[in-house]
Amino acid sequence: MNESDAKLWAGRFSKPTEATMERFNASIGFDRRLYAVDIKGSRAQAKALNRIDVISDEELGQVLNGLDQVEEEISAGQLSLTDDLEDIHMAVEKRLIEIVGEVGGKIHTGRSRNDQVVLDERLYLREVLAGTLVRMDRLQATLLSFSDRHLDVVMPGYTHVQQAQPVRLSHYTMALFWMLERDRGRFEDCFSRSDRMPLGSGSFAGSAYAVDREFLAQELGFSAPTENSIDAVSDRDYLLEFLSASAILMGHLSRFCEDLIVWSSSEFGFVALDEAYSTGSSMMPQKKNPDSLELVRGKTGRVYGNLMSLLTVMKGVPLTYSKDMQEDKEAFFDTIDTVWISLEVFTGAWASMKVDPQKMQASLDGMVLATDLADYLARKGLPFRTCHQVVGRLVKFAVENGKSLEQLDLATLRGESDVFEEDVAEVLVAENSTARRNISGGTGREAVMGQTAKGWRLLAERIKETEL
């Protein structure tokens, strides 16, 4: 085995890795995106070793300068990252040694790739979480603006895919806003639980060198070191939590995509997607397909799969580390890419979407005010169950005679209950139906305005915190 080509771990081996095994074992094809955080961790490690005299001041300067050069080369695409380098950790260290000589090998003193990869993932995860929250804020701002513009648009609300009661389009829109707000909280929780620095855990039993872990945590921006070296290197719950939060987020987006896809059909015509977020058919010239929303809906399954993949990998891995855990990265990286582009596309599609208020209003099916009619009787003193039966019979009569509830005259209404009076006409107006639901969280005009005002305050507070 040529010594210059040997792996950094090859001391006990007498033959090289078989080519197929080398490809199978390598992760550098996908973990190269960790190079900046890996180098950041190596800088901190070098400084910690300098503090306990493992690396001299002069050597520290050489190592830090060498790491700067490695980072510049990778960033510029000048360093060939091939499978024989295995992973980004080995690639950085090998190139560092080529630049500064044997002193470059000192930075691995008391460190294992086991605690190194956990550090890299946690550092990278923090950047990813920040980027995810920024994209979510943009979507939430888009929803708030949309809600403000469409405050007085009334549409049918659905249960069981059947018209149920009138609601304001802005109320429907704010439902997604609050779903995203909870999603945001899950990502923030993920950040707080991943905010521990694992360096010093070594392979799994802890470093034999008295590195100052509190210093390392502070240097790398963590609130504290991890408490247990076995736990630190053997779990991936911080990635599972991110994948779980991502799956829930994508599920929320997917449900709204489903509605918008149906609403954009010619049968509904409630909304029209902008051409910039639609595609055509190679065969049918008239088609304008909602592919942007269909792809978000489809990619939701991809993110679900990534979560299940890592859950399955981790469920039977004995403590502490096994190579199975290398499978965490592709699921993690793919989820990042999928969630980010899905948020960006969904935001653009919603922001540019046109609404047809007249079609929404006209689509109210004539029975959608049945609950309001029952509530009218209840307010007159009848037990609600009796009201329900009375209105049920009226609905049956209307359906059999091809009429809407609004078209039933007072005599017909009084045929079922003499409680009905002339003022019942006010009940059979969709706008009035929403107005009667002005309770906090309801679809009344003032209630929805309160929701959007609160949403704008939340976003303003976050912007202020970011500026501080």
CATH class term of the largest domain: Mainly Alpha
Helix content: 55-70%
Which shape, going by the Cα principal axes?
Answer: elongated
Question: What ranges have pLDDT less than 50 throughout 5 or more consecutive residues?
Answer: none
Order of helices and strands: HHHHHHEEHHHHEHHEHHHHHHH
Widest sheet: strand ordering = 1-2
Radius of gyration: 31 Å
Q: Strand tally, please?
A: 4
Number of helices: 19
CATH superfamily of the largest domain: Fumarase/aspartase (Central domain)
State mean pLDDT (0 to 100 scale). Answer: 92
What class, by secondary structure content? Answer: mainly alpha
Strand content: under 5%
As for the number of domains, it is: 3
Can you walk through the features of this model?
The chain is 61% helix and 4% strand. It has 468 residues and is mainly α. It folds into three domains: 92 residues, Fumarase/aspartase (N-terminal domain) (Fumarase C, Chain B, domain 1), CATH 1.10.275; 231 residues, Fumarase/aspartase (Central domain) (Fumarase C, Chain A, domain 2), CATH 1.20.200; 98 residues, Ribonucleotide Reductase Protein R1, domain 1. The strands form two sheets. Strands 1-2 form a two-stranded antiparallel ribbon. A two-stranded antiparallel sheet has the order 3-4. Strand 1 and strand 2 form a beta hairpin. It is elongated, with a radius of gyration of 31 Å. 36% of the residues are buried. The mean pLDDT is 92.
